[in-house]
Specification:
- By secondary structure, the protein is an alpha+beta fold.
- Strands 2-3-4-1-5-8-7-6 form an 8-stranded mixed β-sheet.
- The protein has 3 helices and 8 strands; from the N terminus they run βαβββαβαβββ.
């Protein structure tokens, strides 16, 4: 396993890019809207991982709720796994609380599933399986 990305909630990707891309010099390689999750995402590689900027596309987006409660900042850590189904089954068998019991399609066509922060010491964890 490795860290696939760090998800950062922001009210506006364009404004956030002024820091991450313009000031720090990270390359902005990809932007897309993930309709199912009601977010617009921008990816910026940094070393072997990436920064994922998350902007809500509607008032009922999970990112809107996060921003309203906590303001901008780190939303989640995404761990890349080889077999997301097996990873979810293992966590469930160990009694870990899952937000998603089965994977769904996320950014860049990856399979994703979220683990509840109560299972991981207060950190929202996303499991990511890269399409083969």
């Amino acid at each position: 396993m490795k860290i696939n990305h760090l998800g950062i909630a922001t009210k506006g990707i364009d404004e956030a890019l002024e820091f991450w891309s313009d000031a720090l010099g990270l390359e902005h390689i990809h932007t897309e809207v993930v309709k199912d999750q009601k977010v617009r995402v921008a990816m910026l590689p940094i070393g072997e991982t990436r920064i994922e900027l998350l902007e809500p596309t509607s008032d009922d987006s999970p990112i809107s709720n996060f921003l309203e409660k906590r303001g901008g900042g780190i939303h989640h850590i995404a761990i890349e796994v080889d077999d997301i189904e097996a990873s979810l089954a293992k966590l469930k068998a160990q009694g870990m609380r899952l937000i998603d019991e089965s994977p769904r399609i996320g950014a860049e066509g990856c399979l994703v599933a979220f683990v509840h922060p109560s299972a991981s010491g207060g950190v929202l964890l996303e499991l990511v399986q890269i399409p083969k």
